[in-house]
Design brief:
The protein has about 500 residues and is mainly alpha-helical. Helix content is about 75%, strand content about 0%. It has 24 helices and no strands. Helix 5 packs antiparallel against helix 22 and helix 19 packs antiparallel against helix 20. The radius of gyration is 23 Å and the shape is globular.
């Protein structure tokens, strides 16, 4: 009798026989669900210790009260540093190996981290555990977002990015809530037993999933048509190959300019010449010679603006992780359960992440993202008015945190989608460098590194401001930071509203 598990691994390694349930396991919705759950798992593991650490460091690790804030900040910053370092490495590897292989490596690191949290007591050992969590995040987000870019059509990229990143936001915001409540009611071990259960569910999905590129070789031998979105993924590669063929000949179109003219709408509107000409300045540098694809990506103002916007978003999120539990404890006298419950106001809008992605697909990335920046900036400034232990201030804080959660979710998915559009354009203009696989993993490693660096800056910066001043100054500083972050997004982010019309114009020019 043949077992189904070996078939799963044959699908991963490229065996001769197709795995069982191939269409189901390579379907776009299962791939998206797997990536979304992976993002949720990572956000969950990151945030579950936020309300627990201030209490467990004192009660379980024997840290004195005056050193609790120091070790809490060190543990939060360790995650970000490791994530920042590992993300570019994961991107380079991810564009050369299976996305699924990278996923499993990230999940293994998350599992080791959780075991260390369960058995370790010394603060130095907890730092190692947190480093494994950062390594996991650097791999999972990079591979996951690249896998989404590989698997879905361009007109749906915003909605799928919204779904995946809502998983990250839900995990990051709900986990402090659950962690605080479970720790207060059932203790330390129950918190990380819950984390192991989440990892186990994620493992089942990752083993079950088959990448569309891996499944394509079996579909080619099948008489039936592959899933529709796999056709779109293959069509994008066919169009890219066709672009290379036409760009090699100046007479490929009646006008003599071929596709370059039709590609003008995809340029950054603030550029006076195509993005292709930007690479000549840095083409002789050492970095450009060693890492040509990364040099091209970093040379794009549109990509840098999206990365900086993501950095702004996650700096604000991590700032709340570091300061909000302390604020509600000192102002309202709440314990770890109350500190966890307040994050419910921030996390609840995350369930609308897919909707925000759909809005991005329909109305454009810049418009939706800027609306999130504006809403977040306003509500951050108003949150500084919460100063007293009164019912009115508690209600006001919850309402403002809810609107801040909406604004934060409006920011991220459009920026991730805009990175996809820019990488598509850069791949067409630099097909000799990007090759068949493209550079999605390396592009999203920049996204991931920005998120990791933000988790270093956010807790350290805002924690210092809050300890040295007060909540009003902290809130106004965050509002100013958010407002400044929107400037680059306004200047460079955005794409044409009708990409399909561009593609149709290209087709007509080629047919002529």
């Amino acid at each position: 009798m043949t077992l189904s598990w070996p078939a799963s691994f044959r699908g991963w390694s490229g065996g001769q026989n197709p795995p069982v349930w191939l269409r189901f396991r390579s379907s776009t919705w299962l791939i998206g669900l797997t990536v979304g759950v992976g993002a949720f798992t990572d956000g969950f593991l990151y945030g579950i210790v936020v309300p627990v650490l201030p209490f467990s460091l004192r009660d379980r690790s024997g840290v004195s009260e005056e050193h609790v804030q120091f070790w809490s900040s060190v543990l939060l910053m360790t995650f970000g540093i490791t994530m920042t370092i590992s993300a570019p490495i994961a991107g380079w590897v991810g564009d050369r190996t299976s996305r699924r292989f990278s996923f499993l490596l990230g999940l293994t690191s998350a599992f080791l981290s959780t075991l260390l949290f369960i058995f370790a007591r010394a603060p130095s050992a907890l730092v190692v555990a947190r480093a494994f969590q950062g390594l996991s995040a650097g791999v999972i987000y990079t591979a996951g977002l690249a896998l989404i870019a590989d698997s879905v059509s361009p007109d749906k990229i915003g909605s799928w990015m919204g779904f995946v990143l809502s998983g990250m936001n839900v995990g990051g915001f709900v986990s402090p809530l659950l962690g605080g409540i479970v720790y207060a009611r059932s203790g330390y071990y129950a918190v990380f037993s819950m984390a192991l259960a989440v990892i186990a569910f994620d493992l089942i999905l990752q083993i079950s999933m088959i990448e569309k590129g891996t499944a394509a070789k079996w579909f080619k031998e099948d008489t039936h048509e592959p899933p529709s979105l796999d056709v779109n993924a293959n069509q994008r590669e066919d169009e890219r190959t066709e672009t290379r063929g036409h760009s090699s000949s100046p007479d490929s179109s009646p006008t003599g300019v071929g596709k370059q003219a039709s590609k003008q709408p995809l340029m950054d509107p603030h550029e006076s010449s195509p993005l292709l000409h930007r690479k000549t300045k840095s083409s002789t540098s050492w970095f450009a010679k060693k890492f040509p694809i990364m040099a091209i990506l970093l040379g794009s103002p549109r990509l840098r603006a999206a990365v900086y916007g993501c950095f702004t978003h996650t700096t604000l999120v991590s700032a709340f992780d570091a300061t909000l539990p302390l604020f509600v404890e000192r102002t309202f006298g709440w314990d770890s359960a109350g500190a966890g419950l307040i994050f419910l106001a921030l996390s609840s809008p995350s369930i609308l992440g897919t909707l925000f992605g759909v809005l991005s697909d329909r109305y454009g990335t810049r418009r939706v993202s800027l609306s999130g920046f504006a809403l977040t900036t306003l509500c951050l400034a108003l949150s500084g008015l919460v100063m007293h232990d009164s019912m009115g201030d508690k209600v006001l804080l919850c309402v403002l945190l809810t609107f801040i959660g909406i604004g934060l979710n409006l920011m991220l998915a459009p920026l991730a989608a805009d990175m996809f559009y820019e990488v598509e354009l850069l791949a067409e203009q630099n097909s000799d460098r990007f090759g068949k696989v493209g550079a999605y993993a390396q592009a999203y490693s920049l996204f991931d590194a920005a998120l990791g660096f933000a988790t270093v800056v956010g807790p350290g910066w805002t924690g210092l401001i809050y300890e040295q001043t007060n909540w009003l100054i902290t809130a106004m500083t965050l509002a100013l930071f958010c407002g400044l972050g929107s400037v680059q997004v306004y200047r460079f982010t955005g794409r044409p509203k009708k990409m399909k019309s561009v593609a149709s114009d290209e087709s007509r020019a080629n047919e002529a």
